[in-house]
Amino acid sequence: MSKVTLELAKAQHASLLKALVVKAFQADFEQYGSFPPHIESTPWHQQSIESGHYYIIKHDSQTAGGILLVPKSLTDIEVKYFFITPAFQDKRIGSGTIALLEKRYPDVLNWSLVTPYKAFRNHHFYQKLGYKKVGEIQPEPNENFWLFEYQKTI
Fold first, then answer.
1. 3-state secondary structure of 98
2. Minimal CA–CA distance to 57: which of 1, 13, 119, 7?
3. What angle in degrees, to the nearest 10, is found between the helix axes of 93-104 and 120-128?
């Protein structure tokens, strides 16, 4: 049985995380014409690592992706970026990651995130884990692009 583990990212992981996230979001780039904000910037990854809530996701001993959390309060966390590279998708790594994080942050009662409106696999995945769609955001009023807001209350 495969094992999912989380490793707190360190400064030297910034380039690796950048490469992984670009690979993981390549399909979004092809669909929407751009990557999510900041992910192509190594300095942004370094700055995000300094927050202390950016994790490398490992499957067995191989690096499979990453997840960046943004604590909003002692009981609220936003999942800013969550990515599994294509070679590691559909192996239950994502659900294993969420389970580990919920154990690692036992005081967090509210988890939130946004995902693109056409990311149907993401919608299904988050709903399966107990997230509920609570809203929609149109980041650029003149563009036909929406983000769906999801929340999970424990």
1. helix
2. 7
3. 50
